[in-house]
Amino acid sequence: MKNKQLTNKKEILTKNQEIVLKLLEKSNEPLKAYSILFNLSEQGVKAPLQVYRALDRLIEIGKVHKIESKNAFVACINSNCTANSNAAFTICEDCDAVSEIHDNKEILKNLNYLANREKSKLNKYNLELYITCKNCLK
Amino acid sequence: MKNKQLTNKKEILTKNQEIVLKLLEKSNEPLKAYSILFNLSEQGVKAPLQVYRALDRLIEIGKVHKIESKNAFVACINSNCTANSNAAFTICEDCDAVSEIHDNKEILKNLNYLANREKSKLNKYNLELYITCKNCLK
DNA sequence: TTACATATGTAATATTATAACATTTAATTA
DNA sequence: TAATTAAATGTTATAATATTACATATGTAA
Ligand SMILES: [Zn+2]
Ligand SMILES: [Zn+2]
Ligand SMILES: [Zn+2]
Ligand SMILES: [Zn+2]
Question: In sequence order, which residues have a C-beta less than 8 Å from that of residue A110 and are 6 or more positions away?
């Protein structure tokens, strides 16, 4: 048996998706698409499209998020995102450190309220908090 | 007296800033930088830099916001943004309508809480709510 | 097998944004 | 006022980000 049977088809990744995700997971900062491309050139990734296509899919299934204000990509560390595509990040304006916010039930509740107030339906959200982080405040 | 005296120096706009802001204010949707450029070509705006420089400044003083996930720009409709650079938007996934959220005190309170929880200081935030709007829900 | 959908490869090109440097205009100050 | 400095503008080129279009390959279902 080549590929073990998975209950969730979404979790079967193709080769390109796999190596892009691996790279993002071992990176400690968001990576840009062309940086991913250069990093993976020895693994057969030779064109922007290979990267963008893999990223598109990974984002679609919630394994990767795009930090819109940075045009950069991070692996998701919050198992819950897979379900709803929501994401919330803090971005330190001093040291550029980016981290995903885990416990965001309260946020979601508020945002749902905001959307409902205008009689519209919230599908997903993107939240970027620009902060000065603990270390940089010292 | 050519220019009336203003208490807040920030509100004196240069020619390019003025015409870019005017265009955004009369537009009913976010505009992309190159769309602004083409729109203003007859008014002497001939190079991307003229647009980007004006936008940078307008964003800095809170008169314009960038919708990061669309690389597009809108005039601020919330007098309060000038002070804090915060912005929150709803974006309809069906009809692309974008609108700025006015009353966001509650959001700010929540986000401050999130930042404080991690012992960091919130400087500003960018929030994009992807919704299905009132009209498109019908 | 055939038919279909999905994934991949490749080249070209579109879109968004900035760097570098020259010139002009406005604001300060000697 | 003239001289000095700072801010804004103009212009060209180029960098960085992302997509289109089309050819080929691979996997799946009938
Ligand atoms: Zn996540
Ligand atoms: Zn920091
Ligand atoms: Zn605003
Ligand atoms: Zn709509």
Answer: B106, B107, B110
Instruction: Please tell me the distance between residue B42's alpha carbon and the centre of ligand 1 in angstroms.
Output: 46
Rounded Cα–Cα distance for residues B75 and B62 (Å): 9
Q: What span, in angstroms and rounded, lies between the C-alpha atoms of B71 and B6?
A: 32
Question: What contacts B137, CB < 8 A, 6 or more positions away?
Answer: A119, A120, A121
The distance (Å) linking the CA of A83 with the C1' of D12 is 49
pTM here? 0.88
Q: What is the pLDDT of residues B10-66, one digit of tens each?
A: 468 898 999 999 999 999 899 999 999 999 998 989 999 999 999 999 998 889 999
Q: Note the strand D nucleotides within 7 A of protein beta carbons.
A: 8-13, 16-21
Which of A110, A122, A137 faces B107 most closely, judged by CB atoms? Answer: A110
User: How much is the pLDDT for B45?
Assistant: 92
| Amino acid identity, position B138 | K
Q: Decide if A90 contacts B120 (C-beta within 8 A).
A: yes
Q: Report the CATH architecture of B1-80.
A: Orthogonal Bundle (1.10)
Residue B126 to residue A128, Cβ atoms within 8 A: yes
Domain A86-138 belongs to what architecture? Answer: 2-Layer Sandwich (3.30)
Token pair for residue A20? Answer: 């892009």
Domain boundaries, chain B: 1-80, 86-138
A17, A67, A95, B43, B55 from B46: Cα distances, Å: 42, 31, 36, 9, 15
